[in-house]
Amino acid sequence: MKKNERLDYIGKQLVQNGAVSIKELAEKLNVSSMTIRRDLRKLAEEGILKLIPGGAILKRESNITDEQEYTVTKAQLQMTKEKIKICKKAALLVQEGDTIVIDTGSTTEHLPGFIPPNMSLTIICYCLNTLLSVYRHCKNSRIILPGGYFHENTLMFESPEGISLIRKMRANKAFISAAGVDDKLGVTCANLHEVETKRAVIESSDTKILLVDSSKFGKITTAYFADLKEFDIVITDAGIPEKYLKILKDLGIKCYVA
Q: How far is the first Cα of the chain from the last one, in angstroms, to the nearest whole number?
């Protein structure tokens, strides 16, 4: 198992159990205790966990505001139950024969697990965690991966050539993530390197679907990539502020609460 896969596994175990044991992780992942200690130190440096004798415990959630602080591993530990519910709802919109785009992020990675495995689709994705999820769950789908430079904090592949490929294609539906949704300053992400790819996806897709948990509303992060009115559907959880339910209704945007 590669380092990023180990970190992903450790993060999910922390979410589920609140704590992890070095000995148990080493046995489960078939690596040395020293390797697990290095992995835990890296996650501790990112502010995800606190080291304790023989293991680690999960730290409380913290707001993500910019590219220097953002990592997918850290984001995976926030609003996890809500993100899973959102993707379960989103999967109901996928139809046989669709071409879909699955954006980068810690929310969208859950979507492939709820798509019927025998459904015939074309899936465009450009993020390692999403690619692995599509490969595992969508056995009857054609996968298109626009490649490029690998950004470790987002697990995203990005390049001018990849963006050009997306612009040449057309998708029925795009499932797009965001780090912030504000009624005045628009929809934002934490990383500037995401912006051009997200714009290409929006311009190449028929139905634009924003997948965001309720903590993102009223939040502004570094990189603007769209106005809220550019989306056709928003899928979120029951914590969405009433203010934003009204804003979405006034804009004519369908809002599904998972």
A: 33
